[in-house]
Amino acid sequence: MTITTKVIIIKVGITNAVMKGVDYMPTDEIPRVNLQRLREMRKKANMTQAEVSAYLGYKSSLGYHYLETGRCSIKAEQLLSLSKLFGVPVDQIIDNAVISKPTKAM
């Protein structure tokens, strides 16, 4: 599995399902965050990485920088906070496509 700078896999499972008001999300599907879109939203809001980092509770701008560049995974709570900050639904940050988890051969 390859992680690009545009898209990062987030592991949210049941937490994401609860955020979307769904009773259950299959564990074989993992939603992906569109990192390029996330960066565009930040720039459209005229915010720096340092400002978004502070909003998310990080002590330095590297906290958000690592999320935006795909170096670290975005937690479901952070995803919800970002959607509120940018005034968009979570679905606009997450790609419509999902990837399947690799299954173990029996």
**CATH class annotation:** Mainly Alpha
Number of helices, where a helix is a run of at least 4 consecutive DSSP H or I residues:
6
**Structural class of the secondary elements?**
alpha+beta
CATH architecture type: Orthogonal Bundle
Tally of individual domains: 1
The residue-averaged pLDDT reads 75
Query: Could you list the spans in which at least 5 consecutive residues all have pLDDT below 50?
Result: 1-18, 97-102
What is the spatial order of strands in the main beta sheet? 1-2-3
Would you give the CATH topology? 434 Repressor (Amino-terminal Domain)
Q: Give the biggest sheet.
A: 3 strands, antiparallel
The SSE string, one letter per element, is EHEHHHHHE
What's the quaternary structure here?
A: single chain
Radius of gyration, Cα only, in angstroms?
14 Å
Distance between the termini: 20 Å
Helix content: 40-55%
Number of strands: 3
Give the CA-based shape: globular
Gist of the model:
This protein has 106 residues and is of the alpha+beta class. The protein has six helices and three strands; from the N terminus they run βαβαααααβ.
What keywords describe this structure?
44% helix; 434 Repressor (Amino-terminal Domain); alpha+beta; three-stranded antiparallel β-sheet; 106 residues; disordered N terminus
